[in-house]
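Cross-check.
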Amino acid sequence: MTTTEVLVNFAHGVLGALELFVLSAIFSLVLGAVLAVLRVSPIPVFRAVGTVYVTVVRNTPMVLLMFFCVFGLPFLAVRFSDTAAVNSFIYAVIALSLYTAAFVCEVFRSGISTIPVGQSEAARAIGLNFFQSLQFVILPQAIRTVVAPLASVLITMLKGTSIASAFNNQEIIYAMKNAIEKRGDIVIPILLGTALVYLLLNLALGRVFSYLERKAVILR
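Predicted model, tokenized:
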């Protein structure tokens, strides 16, 4: 494997990691918002469901959840394609999304708790029910207060995509292992390059969230 081939291999790995990250981020944000609504719901059953989910998932190692999705879902006949690589990718997205959603939920819930009670009372006074007040009054304000902690959760998830390499998903660590197998003479540069790739990706994501946080402060 030439140096050019090593770089191309890493480029494919970065692309695979970004695909995993983007899809998992979207699903985890949506699921996390739903769970946050359940956690603050006035209906006891909804609160219980949200609490149990968050408690169980937050105290479960991500790798165990990944194992369950990759090996347990096929055992339950849950498949999305006839191609093993596609199934493995989707299972990884599901695992990352389910795991990260529990932390996103707590971030959103902490944001909701910062909104003065008077906001909810004013919403009820103009005839909005609980879910309408959340949708139109509470959540739009809460989201602006949680940009920084949300960035921390998603940056952790970006690094967590490395676990997917153990299940034949082409991402950065998978590319690193392939490169080391083919070019054992440049192990140290490959390892340093891998660390640099993660550093650059995390810094770039951090800059994006810093920009969003500044915009959110202006909007408040």
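The chain is about 80% helix and 0% strand. The two ends are 53 Å apart (CA to CA). Passed to J.P. for a second look.
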